[in-house]
Amino acid sequence: MAAPARVRVVMAPGWERRVDLAADVRAVGPLAADIAEDAGARAPRRTGALADSYVVEKPRLLVRRIGSHLDYGAAVELGSRPYTIVPRTKRALWWPGADHPVRRVRHPGVRPRPHLRPALYTRRAAPRTTFGIGGAE
Fold it and tell me: Are strands 54-60 and 105-107 parallel, antiparallel or unpaired?
């Protein structure tokens, strides 16, 4: 299994104002689950593996980490630059349908297809009972 990709995401200025979240322990878990579900629903689908891979981790009381364990998740969300693919163990690359083995292949990179960040920025209505504003009366 490939090592997880290390990605640093720098949030846009003012992102705090875009996330309508009261710091309530009971709200953070369901909110994170909703964001992960929305990210899966917005994810590009070829096999559905990326959409099904989003998980929520709880490192601290009011902190939730949402992400995918798949090594290509960051490249789909953020895109990738062009890069060269070279053989690791052999002297050439070959695949079914290739005319002949080659020493290297130039990959053109991929355009970003954001789905996790738009899921985060979606405005959500908080359940009234979550924040102690309504409920059984």
Answer: unpaired
